Amino acid sequence: xxxxxxxxxxxxxxxxxxxxxxxxxxxxxxxxxxxxxxxxxxxxxxxxxxxxxxxxxxxxxxxxxxxxxxxxxxxxxxxxxxxxxxxxxxxxxxxxxxxxxxxxxxxxxxxxxxxxxxxxxxxxxxxxxxxxxxxxxxxxxxxxxxxxxxxxxxxxxxxxxxxxxxxxxxxxxxxxxxxxxxxxxxxxxxxxxxxxxxxxxxxxxxxxxxxxxxxxxxxxxxxxxxxxxxxxxxxxxxxxxxxxxxxxxxxxxxxxxxxxxxxxxxxxxxxxxxxxxxxxxxxxxxxxxxxxxxxxxxxxxxxxxxxxxxxxxxxxxxxxxxxxxxxxxxxxxxxxxxxxxxxxxxxxxxxxxxxxxxxxxxxxxxxxxxxxx
Length: 373
Description:
Shape: globular
CATH superfamily: Luciferase-like domain
Order of helices and strands: EHEHEHEHHEEEEEEHEHEHEHH
Strand order of the largest sheet: 1-2-3-4-9-10-11-13
Number of helices: 10
Helix content: 25-40%
Largest sheet: 8 strands, parallel, barrel
Number of domains: 1
């Protein structure tokens, strides 16, 4: 049985995947953080047919370390809310880490984003590994792979349980009985971990999707708690192997792309940027540089192994235009990839079921294994 068509995501944080991408941006440097520029990029992505955009984030500035690049950004959740309000079909997934942030606040932010977007919210689970992040939060450092994994796991469990803490029909709005809520359908999650505890329930009603779509790099959190595993490798074969071992319902390949433009080849564009800063290899991403036709061929090959891709353009203003004109249309014509349908949630666009609250009191409720709740 053939696999469903690919779903396409693109990272739109900053100016692009290269640390010096800002040097080739098609706008004035001061427009980087403007709402006009963000709305324009989101509109291009939506009109091109992308299912999802992601927005990177950290409590630390996105400085390359040498002082030559942008050193500020607007919070990903705030930008995601703006994108959600200025689009109608596009899924929006900010990066949020629970390493130091309160999971209760993360849960409320993402549930609110899902309400604002009418069910188009996702969450890229992040991890803050830099010790400077602990100092910025005023928290003790979470040190070591085991401690980071514990915080990521506990944070994700708490966020999911808080989304579930309101059953779908908890809000009744009965004028006749003067009742707004059925309190029996609100639940304290009673979580107690090694470093914090959360009573609950959430202050935000259950999101339209039940739970916003959770994306995470393979190995960051247990596969049973995620909807989309972000996988990578240095070759298409490695990406396919990683996708097969991911264990999540869906697997998206992480790909950095540098495309030929009408005026320059990808190699010439990379060489121009390399004069300012190196484009270091990312261990968890496949990299493609060349003509649009070659990227189409690569994605056609990957379509046999993954459910989607997340693209990281070299320079957003340049590569997104080539993707929109030459890559995505060919993918759609050849039915390698599919556009999202208007009026659908992000879960529906990805072919994911809407989960029941694990606290549901209905007799017909499904019994969900502990690690998938």
